[in-house]
């Protein structure tokens, strides 16, 4: 395939979007979501006359009778969309304070500079939709398939994601090496923290089903972050005080996830008083019973069911709910109230 790179003035791209001859959101693309802060920073880059990476386009539909046709933005959707939002004064781009001037407040010479800004366009030529789709995925692929968290990471860069990164990097997890180096490379540590945070806000859910909705909703701002951070700190301190054995299954991710959620609900949300030593003794006894389910002659129904829920369908909603109920009941028995 031969491609050509040319410079196009920004005004040509903006009028193309206006006239619907340049399609910024082909249906095969994922809807990209920049935070408002990053949109403003990108606009500032353009206003300063600094370059940004080339945009990939391909031919869209052509009317053979009139000669009218369209072009698709294969890669660079968010950049062009953000520039269009700035030019049109869209409410989807919020300019707060004196970060940058709005387009309508620019003096005429600056407006001309903005419109005459040259964008490097890589024209992929007249491709079929299938070929265009394949190239899009090639441009945006790595040498291995992306997991759900990696896909969301490529789309969202805002407040909730940053909060989850902070929780994943909390000394509580780092000091115990809860996450492996592979977890870090595949973003499973952030995935864990994100699932934990959303569960506190909404309740147990299946796998990663709620991630996209919450990342989108709290991309620009996460106002409850401070309160949640205080709550997590309190729960982590309580678990520290329990002094669980190093080889306890409490340090396995599914078990730890459940314990953090239920401790948060009881000690932070419901303000129950728990004694670390009593709680630790009860949980250690329960975890030992769970570990012995396979060779115990008569394991308790609670331990047997918990064991089943950590062996299959571990991240299904019902499994998470069932494990949560088991741990909550133990914690309630340890409550001073």
Number of DSSP strand runs: 5
Broad shape: elongated
Q: Low-confidence segments, ≥5 residues, pLDDT <50?
A: 142-146
Oligomer: single chain
Count of discrete alpha- or pi-helical segments spanning 4 or more residues: 16
- Beta fraction of the residues? 5-15%
**Main beta sheet:** 5 strands, mixed
Helix content: 40-55%
Q: End-to-end span in angstroms?
A: 73 Å
Number of domains: 2
Roughly what is the average pLDDT, rounded to an integer?
A: 87
Q: How is the secondary structure organized here?
A:
Blueprint: E1 4-9, H1 10-18, E2 22-23, H2 36-47, E3 55-62, E4 69-75, H3 77-88, H4 108-115, E5 118-123, H5 129-139, H6 148-155, H7 159-168, H8 171-174, H9 181-185, H10 188-202, H11 211-217, H12 225-242, H13 253-269, H14 276-291, H15 301-309, H16 317-333
Parallel strand pairs: 2-4, 3-5
Antiparallel strand pairs: 1-5, 3-4
Helix pairs in contact: 7-10, 10-13, 12-13, 12-14, 13-16, 14-15, 15-16
What does this entry look like structurally?
There is one protein chain. This protein is of the alpha/beta class and 337 residues long. It has two domains: 4-141, no CATH class; 149-333, no CATH class. The chain has helices at residues 10-18, 36-47, 77-88, 108-115, 129-139, 148-155, 159-168, 171-174, 181-185, 188-202, 211-217, 225-242, 253-269, 276-291, 301-309, 317-333, and strands spanning 4-9, 22-23, 55-62, 69-75, 118-123. The chain has a five-stranded mixed β-sheet. A hairpin with a 6-residue loop joins β3 and β4. α10 (188-202) packs parallel to α13 and α12 crosses α14 (276-291). The longest helix has 18 residues, at 225-242. The chain is elongated and about 80 Å long. The protein starts with a strand and ends with a helix.
């Amino acid at each position: 395939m031969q491609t050509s790179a040319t410079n196009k003035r920004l005004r040509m791209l903006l009028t193309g979007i206006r006239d619907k001859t340049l399609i910024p959101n082909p249906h095969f693309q994922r809807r990209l979501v920049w935070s408002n802060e990053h949109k403003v920073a990108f606009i500032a880059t353009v206003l300063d006359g600094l370059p940004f990476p080339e945009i990939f386009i391909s031919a869209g539909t052509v009317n053979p009778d009139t000669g009218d046709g369209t072009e698709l933005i294969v890669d660079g959707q968010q950049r062009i969309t953000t520039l269009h939002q700035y030019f049109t004064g869209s409410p989807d781009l919020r300019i707060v304070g004196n970060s940058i001037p709005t387009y309508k407040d620019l003096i005429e010479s600056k407006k001309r500079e903005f419109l005459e800004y040259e964008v490097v366009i890589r024209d992929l030529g007249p491709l079929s939709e299938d070929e265009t789709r394949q190239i899009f995925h090639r441009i945006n692929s790595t040498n291995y398939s992306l997991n759900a968290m990696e896909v969301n990471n490529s789309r969202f860069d805002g407040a909730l994601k940053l909060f989850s990164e902070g929780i994943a990097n909390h000394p509580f997890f780092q000091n115990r090496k809860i996450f492996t180096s592979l977890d870090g490379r595949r973003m499973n540590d952030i995935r864990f923290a994100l699932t934990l945070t959303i569960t506190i806000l909404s309740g147990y859910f299946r796998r990663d089903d709620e991630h996209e909705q919450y990342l989108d909703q709290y991309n620009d701002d996460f106002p409850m972050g401070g309160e949640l951070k205080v709550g997590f700190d309190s729960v982590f301190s309580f678990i520290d005080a329990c002094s669980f054995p190093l080889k306890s299954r409490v340090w396995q991710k599914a078990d730890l996830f459940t314990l953090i959620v239920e401790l948060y609900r009881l000690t932070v949300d419901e303000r129950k008083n728990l004694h670390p030593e009593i709680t630790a003794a009860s949980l250690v006894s329960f975890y030992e019973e769970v570990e012995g389910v396979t060779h115990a002659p008569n394991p308790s129904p609670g331990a047997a069911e918990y064991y089943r829920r950590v062996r299959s369908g571990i991240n299904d909603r019902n499994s998470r709910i069932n494990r949560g109920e088991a741990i909550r009941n133990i914690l309630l028995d340890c409550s001073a109230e």
